[in-house]
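Reviewers asked in the last cycle whether our approach scales beyond single polypeptides. To address this, we selected a multi-component target totalling 321 residues and predicted its structure end to end. The input consisted of the following lines:
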Amino acid sequence: MAQAHGIASWFCCGSAWGPCSQAGTGACGTCQSSKNMSAWPKIGTSCNYDGCGRTFVKLSCGSTINVKNDCNGKNLNVVVADCGPNVPRFCGQKAPDCALYAGRIVDLTPAAFSALAPLSQGLLTCVVTTW
Amino acid sequence: MFSRRGFIQSIMLGAASVALSPQLLGSIANAVANGEALGPNGAEDTFVEGMVISRTGADIQFRGPAGEVTALNIAGANIWRGKDGIQMDAINKGDYLYARAVFINGQLVATNLWVNIVNVSGVLSEGDSKMFILEHGRLRYSVMVGPDAEYFRGLEKLASPPKLVSGDIVQVIGLWEGNNRITATRVFSA
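The resulting structure, written as structure tokens, was:
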């Protein structure tokens, strides 16, 4: 078991609306906004967004990780379904909540993010547990 | 964001302006009286999304990504459309919604609703802090920053718009206006 502390945001996939219309179903071909899914920065051989002094655990499409909002304690399991975020782009990013940690480490579908915080918040402080 | 517990309690206290059937109100009362499991994760609530195809008062019908049509009552929901606390009359046919909802007596009842919300990040290629072009791969978004928008740099909430220049990495939460246009309500920059 490993844990990573940082920031989560959200993205859409799999539905044909607005900016999602060209998002497709992600690197794994399974991503759906309405399911509890995530993007993870290191999947398989062609997806690797190590950066900002972080080396991520390599996961496979379909892996389950746990994401906990470390400001309110809510957590849920999500299925890895896409590659991202582009970690080096968001090294110093903090969420406008309790802001315990910095740096983007995971992106969640609207279904998953909204279970942890309002979508309009945009970012949340989280702990990700991988197995 | 409304919790299910808060939502139900607000109804019981009359704080929410709702138009629910007597049967539904009875079920809500029973849920509260029985201390129905309202866990910290709201485990029994659900997420729905889709395009609004009709609205009659507080009752919406929307079409989900798989084409299914679902009825949703939004009488007691917190509605976001550029900001929280928007009235239900602002929801129109063709709007796209994300919602957290609970099943009460077989009826899907929204607790939180986000209308036409988007979250886009990319490289600022033209413009300034109030109006800019955001490029995400081969996609280009025209972003107009709303009058009440909040700017963040790192954790810091800025009192005034920061200087944004071409090449900056920017993330925007906002309202989708169609044709790749976004009205930003939150702007995050590095």
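The mean pLDDT of chain A is 93. We regard this as preliminary and will revisit it once experimental data from Aim 1 are available.
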